[in-house]
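Slack export, channel: ligand-projects

TW: morning all. Re-posting the request from yesterday since it got buried. We need the structure predicted with the small molecule present, not the apo form. The ligand is flavin-adenine dinucleotide; the SMILES is in the block with the sequence. No rush, but it would help planning for next week.
GE: picking it up
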Amino acid sequence: MKAHIVGGGFGGLAAAVLLIRNAGASGADITVYEANERMGGSFSMGGSAETGYILPCGSVFDSEFRCTFDVLAHIPSATNPKKSVKDEFFTFNTEHPFRDRAHIIDRNGQKIHGPHFGLGLRDGFDLARLSLTPEAKLDGRRIDEFFSAEFFDSEFWWLWSTIMGSLPQHSATEFRRYINRTLALFPDLSDMTNVLRTPLDQYEAFIVPLVAWLDAQHVNLLTKAFVRDIGLAPLSDRITVDRIDYERDGATTSVAVAPEDLVLVTTGSEAADLSVGSMTAPPQPRNSGRSWALWKRLAQGRTDFGNPDVFFGEARIKDSRWITFTITTRSDEFIQQLSTMTESEPGSGGLVTLKDSNWVLSFSVLHHPEVIGQPDGTNLLWGYGLHPERTGQYVTKQMSECTGAEILQELLRQLRFDKQLDAIMGSSICIPCDLPYVNNIWMPRKRTDRPPPVPNGSTNLGVIGQYVEVPLDVAFTIEYSTRTAWEAINTLLRDGPAPPPVYQGQYDPKALFNALKVFLFQ
Ligand SMILES: Cc1cc2nc3c(=O)[nH]c(=O)nc-3n(C[C@H](O)[C@H](O)[C@H](O)COP(=O)(O)OP(=O)(O)OC[C@H]3O[C@@H](n4cnc5c(N)ncnc54)[C@H](O)[C@@H]3O)c2cc1C
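GE: finished. pasting the full token output, ligand included:
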């Protein structure tokens, strides 16, 4: 058996590990085709201390990423090969837990933190009602159909929407999944105690060791290889891939696929059409559509492959775009001022959200070093705007049209660091990053809008990633992509261990009790 994996994001790389580990495949029989210059998909990093680092992603994990940690338990860490990536991750989080002391801050610089996260009894009832509503009744419905207007101005909503990315107009189905899947995090949402993060940026912590391990297994890792088409054998009632066409270095190559071979296709990317700006230039929008082009081709004229238009295309961007930014700073004063304001040691606090900033700016000072080789005295902040379509209060432009300098200026003025503004601007580099589809997994959807890991009638084709339907789990995670890969491999090969069940807080007495305590007593 040969295996062809389209997409070298976390999901595609995890699929290769699972094929070797669970299905006994030989590494040399596996090829991963990745359109970008590097493996890693949405988890990328770039830049330097001199030019400014570029870290497009945040870092939000919990201990119930069961498929992910099962895979990472087998991968030696890149910095300490005696340890697995999983062990390294948990050791780091035990030694450096988040202790966010100022999470939501209002226009007066006051911390917002009150009893029950500002939720009333009615909100508790509405949350419980949604949690208990079967998904079959939520097709196409929005979160704001289930809650009062006050709910969306509660401390809980600010915490939730800025950690998880949800907006009132987003999918009630996905919100319900989040309530159940992450219930155990609920009592500590404000200080983020049980939210976990990578010891280094996600690319270096996860992707580098995965690629090194797969390389050592002789997996063919083809970068700059864009799979343009997949040929299907002409059988009326079955779907069997017999050919893959990919473009690389200006040439198109066709690879024959046998009926017993396996093809796993990543059907899209949250980082689709990502573009990076600079201190002096805003990110230039890209409209390549490449990351979901293959899904579109597969779905054309078929009903079993879902509906890519629900997630991708110009019309989706207004409810899905974030502008993220990475600040590389040599200003001690900046870091000290932030520490004083948030009462947190640099790198120990999670997200800080300036809830009254028009862009709804959230940021965190990252643990040092976040990147291998990061010089002493150089610190990194990562942040994003949940509403980049709005005009800033100090820089009167949409965030998506701003240079890094303008974003940094708006942030500093929102923080009331006006006195230090010139000094901080002079010793910091802010690089903005446009992610037009980052939040598209939150689009209101029907159950049939994403195909199952093995579409009906398929004999050797599986689909993996965030735009694939598996029950219960939440899609804005590497866990989801790993789970879809595991399901697809298991279903197609009818062999190997089944994936672990998805954690469900509503059936966990401890999580339920702790959540109830917040409503009744805290
Ligand atoms: C800003 C941001 C913050 C995030 N924070 C977190 C977090 O804290 N915790 C968490 O768990 N997750 C987080 N995520 C989500 C996480 O990045 C994704 O869940 C994960 O990367 C999905 O993996 P994937 O392999 O399915 O897709 P991707 O990582 O998106 O990779 C898909 C790859 O497929 C390639 N591809 C697509 N079509 C083709 C083709 N035809 N030919 C060749 N290659 C193709 C693309 O180029 C891409 O590299 C975040 C994402 C972003 C953007």
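GE: first-pass observations. The chain has a mean pLDDT of 96. The two ends are 57 Å apart (CA to CA).
TW: perfect, thank you
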